[in-house]
Design brief:
With 207 residues, this protein is α/β, with parallel strands linked by helices. The chain is built from six helices and nine strands, in the order E-H-E-H-E-E-E-E-H-E-H-E-H-H-E. It has helices at residues 34-48, 66-76, 107-116, 133-141, 157-171, 177-188, and strands at 16-23, 56-62, 80-85, 87-88, 91-95, 102-105, 122-128, 145-151, 201-205. The strands form two sheets. The protein has a six-stranded mixed sheet, sandwiched between helices. Strands 4-5-6 form a three-stranded antiparallel sheet. Helix 4 (133-141) links the parallel strand 7 and strand 8. 45% of the residues are buried.
């Protein structure tokens, strides 16, 4: 999967650009371990893969509004987007313009943002959020994303962290998408929580 190209005819990039999005405004729900997932798990995956750090550029944004996401997509031009935060079948949750509530970003909305940013087909989208499988599937089916991961049911912190580690360490070892996905599942099964939740992870590839 790395170096990633959006199609066989394109030249793979020399530096992989990974954009991570993290939101958790639900004070009534259990806080998500977003900082650990982002700054420890993915960095540890890069370290364990013995992959040159200079070959990967991370950009991380929290408190993600629609305008801020649009700006990051345009200026950073990511090859991979990893979302850790709350979601539902309506889409992933972003911060509303007022800053004190959330709004959902669905597949058509994300597709429009990618198009506006000049990203014809995003190579990889990982939605490590509850209920995100529908959004991942639609973006892959419509061809806006080459490879996508989503969760059909609820997400559990520990499993989300384990899946992220297994997925990214395999990607940084030049693993193909299927290998990354299966390694993520294998790592997530080590979690002490209900093992049935692992089966909620789904992977999709564009035609």
């Amino acid at each position: 999967l790395f170096p990633i190209a959006t199609s066989p005819a394109q030249t793979p990039p020399t530096t992989l650009r990974v954009l991570t999005l993290r939101n958790n405004l639900h004070i009534e729900t259990k806080p998500l371990d977003l900082d650990r997932e982002e700054f420890v798990v993915m960095q540890e995956a890069l370290k364990q893969a013995a992959f040159p750090k200079s070959s990967v550029t991370f950009e991380s944004i929290g408190f993600v509004t629609l305008d801020r996401l649009r700006e990051q997509l345009t200026h950073f031009q990511p090859h991979c987007i990893h979302v850790c935060g709350h979601g539902s079948e309506r889409g992933i949750e972003l911060v509303a313009p007022t800053g004190d509530s959330t709004e959902s970003l669905n597949a058509p909305g994300m597709a429009q943002l990618l198009s506006e940013a000049g990203i014809a087909r995003l190579p990889l989208l990982v939605l490590n959020s509850c209920g995100s499988a529908k959004m991942a599937a639609n973006l892959a089916r419509l061809g806006f994303v080459a490879h996508a991961v989503g969760i059909a049911g609820p997400a559990v912190n520990a499993q989300a962290l384990d899946f992220a580690y297994g997925f990214w360490v395999t990607l940084f070892k030049n693993g193909a998408f299927a290998q990354c996905f299966q390694k993520g599942l294998k790592m997530a099964r080590r979690c002490r929580n209900d093992a049935r939740l692992v089966t909620s992870y789904q992977g999709f590839a564009a035609n």
